[in-house]
Specification:
This protein has 402 residues and is mainly alpha-helical. The protein has a domain of 147 residues. 77% of the residues lie in helices and 0% in strands. The two termini are 39 Å apart. 50% of the residues are buried.
Length: 402
């Protein structure tokens, strides 16, 4: 069966299951099993997919990081540090809308696996008392967390892309900076309009404490520092910070029970869904689907930039992670034209575009899980914004291609 027909049927199955309110993880895994049925049907490929999932350091790093992110969120929420931090932020920003967009965007500058699970309660706290439904709040948290994918020098996908293509990080950022500005503008247009929030003087009767702000923000900065400078994994970094925060909060008179933290972080549905996503990605590798997609695009009679864009978008959708499409597509960019800013830009923007439209994206999954929002209603404004972003980028790139 043609590979794109297989993918289309798998996506259709996923959509049907999601429409019937099946959980995201099992829906994705069912789509993966359908792909296996059409492309392999051999038990050995399923066993290989399971082996890839279980033995991959990234799997355990992701699960561990998510667990400790939830631990940290519980610590900050139950100690009321999160609430105090939000009051402080609302005291220095002119409106709740700006705060709702700014906090996930700021935290997105400090890349951490599962970080959307940390910014979600902040968005929820800022929106408390306002008539904003959870579908919109989930969309705000998800979209604005990723507006700097094209403009941050510490995003893993950006670093890996530049290393492979031999392009300086600064050059690629300058080339794509306008895309991040456009991403913010589109997100604001689709997600931050159509509702009103309390005026500034009505929401800031309590001044809030600068201490709360720093107690909430410094743990994320510490995680970033450990990952960048000490070279520890995301799970280890988050674990160290979550454990250290226990005595820190106790010294500040904000003690939180150990059982509340470490047992309360065992969110079964969250880890079930993440496990299903990881196994789905393992199936894509063991059945050779990703390689088949690349070959199908390469053999198509279309221009090279369109081939690169198509592969990046497809792999981004299937894997839901920047390292996935970068690792597959950027070597092709380097082989075709090493150092080509335009081609590298196409690969990165379309790869991220695929990431932003798929339930395999862990940030989307954990955001929907936190807000208990509807998958389709959460994703619809993001889809519309992403279509406009990719269309505008394509037109500008075509008109300015040397």
């Amino acid at each position: 069966m043609p590979i794109f027909l297989t993918i289309a049927l798998a996506v259709a199955l996923m959509v049907v299951l999601l429409r019937r309110k099946t959980a995201i993880g099992p829906s994705i895994l069912a789509a993966g099993l359908l792909i296996w049925l059409f492309e392999s049907r051999e038990a050995t490929s399923l066993i290989e997919a399971l082996r890839i999932t279980v033995t991959s350091p990234r799997s355990w790093d992701l699960l561990g990081a998510l667990y400790f992110v939830v631990c940290l969120e519980i610590e900050l929420r139950k100690s009321e540090t999160l609430k105090g931090m939000v009051r402080y932020v609302l005291g220095i920003l002119p409106s709740k809308k700006i705060a709702m967009a700014a906090m996930p965007a700021f935290l997105g500058l400090l890349p951490s696996i599962g970080g959307a699970r940390f910014s979600a309660p902040i968005v929820a706290e800022i929106a408390q008392g306002e008539a904003i439904d959870n579908n919109r709040l989930a969309g705000i948290n998800f979209w604005f967390r990723h507006i700097f994918e094209f403009a941050s020098p510490i995003i893993p996908g950006m670093i890996l892309a530049c290393a492979i293509t031999k392009i300086s990080v600064a050059d690629l950022i300058l080339h794509l900076l306008w895309a991040s500005v456009l991403s913010f503008a589109l997100g604001w247009s689709f997600l931050m309009t159509g509702f009103k929030t309390s005026k500034r003087h009505e929401v800031n009767e309590e001044k809030g404490s600068a201490l709360d702000f720093w107690v909430a923000i410094l743990p994320i900065v510490a995680v970033f520092a450990l990952m960048i400078f000490a070279k520890t994994s995301a799970a280890v970094s988050m674990g160290i910070v979550a454990v250290v925060m226990v005595p820190v909060l106790a010294l500040l008179g904000r003690k939180v029970g150990l059982k509340d933290i470490f047992w309360g972080a065992c969110e079964k549905s969250l880890f079930r869904d993440v496990g299903c996503i990881l196994l789905f990605i393992g199936i894509l590798h063991s059945t050779g689907v990703l390689e088949a997609i690349v070959l199908a695009f390469e053999s198509a009679p279309i221009p090279t930039p369109a081939v690169i864009a198509g592969i990046a978008f497809a792999v981004g959708m299937l894997t839901g992670m920047s390292q996935g499409h970068v690792a597959i597509v950027m070597p092709m960019v380097a082989a075709v034209s090493s150092g080509d800013l335009n081609l590298a830009g196409v690969a990165l923007v379309f790869g991220v575009g695929g990431q932003m439209l798929t339930p395999t994206h862990v940030c989307l999954m954990v955001t929907i899980d936190y807000f208990k929002s509807d998958f389709f209603k959460t994703l619809l404004p993001c889809v519309l914004a992403e279509i406009l972003l990719l269309t505008t980028f394509s037109v500008v790139t075509y008109l300015t291609w040397p």
